[in-house]
Amino acid sequence: MNKKNMENDDFFDEASIIQGFDIELSESNALRIDRLVDEYEKSILNRVDEEYSENTTISDRLADSIAKFGGSWTFIGCFGALLIVWMIWNTLPFIKPLHFDEPPFILLNLCLSFLAAFQAPIIMMSQNRQSARDKHESVIDFAINYKAEQEIDDIQKHLHRMEEDDLNTLEQFNGELLEIKKLLASIESRLSRLDIKKDE
Q: What is the rounded distance in angstroms from the CA atom of residue 46 to the CA atom of residue 28?
């Protein structure tokens, strides 16, 4: 009896049930489905990346590179160091003949204005392209989710049909079992009558 209980426990451990969308899945099947979905999504994202790379021009790549560098701590550190060196160079009294932008740093203000004027549109171009790509990916995600929902509905309908078939089969089996019981009861009654007659 203990061995039988241990076998039942092992069975339930292996087939631990996971509820999802009213469908019972074993853990191994759920892991397999997750792996397949991940592979499918990766293949789609790789395809989107390929299309994105194919449709990207040199100017687009340059804008992406500038936006990537302009929005990093590396840029902030380098630009901050350049500003500090610029101001120190142009304020040290012992190298006054080498000053090219004395306070109030008019040339520096002009350079900063040019940088802001050109960097902002370039970053906006890159962001517009990224938002277009994100929109495309969201449409793909919606299509995948919609297709998955349809397939889940089909699986549910199939499971309900199987359940109905099982119920019908069970009812037929119960009916046939009742008939067999009746036949056995009639046979037993006849045998008991024959035994009584023999005894007389």
A: 27
Measured between alpha carbons, how far is 23 from 18 in angstroms, rounded to an integer?
8
In this structure, what token pair is assigned to residue 135? 């929109």
Euclidean distance between CA atoms 196 and 192, whole angstroms: 6
Mean pLDDT of the chain: 78
Taking every pair of C-alpha atoms in the chain, what is the biggest distance, in angstroms? 146
**Phi, psi for 26 (deg, rounded to 5):** -75, 160
Alpha helices in the chain (DSSP H): 2-14, 27-54, 58-70, 73-89, 106-199
Mean pLDDT of 72-78: 92
pLDDT at 83 over 80: yes
Question: What is the per-residue pLDDT across 186-200, written as a single tens digit (0 to 9) for each?
Answer: 888 888 877 776 666
Q: Which tokens hold the place of 80? A: 């901050």
Which residues, 6+ apart, have CB-to-CB distance to 145 below 8 Å? none
The answer to whether residues 52 and 133 touch, using CB atoms and an 8 Å cutoff, is yes
Which pTM was predicted?
Answer: 0.47
Residue written as tokens 């012992």? Answer: 94
Q: Where are the domains of the chain?
A: 1-55, 58-199
Q: Cα–Cα distance between 128 and 118 in angstroms, integer?
A: 16
> Tokens 């449709």 identify what position?
55
